[in-house]
Amino acid sequence: MKIKILSPQWGHEHLPIHQFLDKIRTNGYDGVDTWIPQNQDDKRILFDYLQKYEMHIVSHQHRAAGNTFKEFKASFIENLQECAEPGPLLINSHTGRDYFSFAQNLELVDAAQEFSAKTGIRVVHETHRGRLGYSPQMTSEFFAARPDFRITADFSHWVCVTESMLENFTAILNEAITRSSYIHARVGFEQGPQVADPRAPEWAYALNKFLSWWDQIVSENAQKGFDILPVTTEFGPEPYMPKVPFSDRPMVNQFEINCYMKDLLINRYHHFR
Known about the structure:
Layout: E1 2-8, H1 17-26, E2 31-34, H2 40-53, E3 56-61, H3 69-83, E4 91-93, H4 102-119, E5 123-126, H5 136-145, E6 151-153, H6 155-162, H7 170-178, E7 180-184, H8 204-223, E8 228-232, H9 254-268
Parallel strand pairs: 1-2, 1-8, 2-3, 3-4, 4-5, 5-6, 6-7, 7-8
Helix pairs in contact: 3-4, 5-7
């Protein structure tokens, strides 16, 4: 198994797409986690660049919308089709809504599975606030209902939602680790989805806890014989990144932190490179 470290485009929307891609490639990233551009020129540049430099992509489904569930489901399937265009490693999906019924969200899961069966492209469902996987308790119901339900492990949301380091959710967490096909390597804490700076000693307890979870996911995927495990260093910009009070300055540099995480993960999992 190979681990591929990706950069999020999130936080770099101000850069022309080719400048962003040059930036992450020259800084040692294996690819990108991003949405499919709606601008056709940017879309062509992205697809051509990935092919030219043999970089990987995880495409990001987050645009599904609609005034009714029927409209949302149609939009969801349409967005999955768009996400499949560059031949991604997988599609990371912000699936459903936390206010949809369990049956409605399960209908979306089944639609995604049907899409994967037809295209051969895995759809994994991110553990994200506001979506179907917003909490460990809710996600466990999907685990019970669908043995092939796979997730993007972004446990930073779960520690925030439960105001804990998941001490009381061991069984669900262990199941989640076995179901994880993708990691969003952002470190959260009991009161938020992103620590201010993972390099700071006061956040060592959280970083070490997340590293232990990621170690288990790496081991699980290796044992199951998957070819590639993508990992995105997903520390985000404002408002995830706190600002210096009375200013518009971020407390630390987002890209610098993500590169720190990239190097940490490359060194930690060097035998999977």
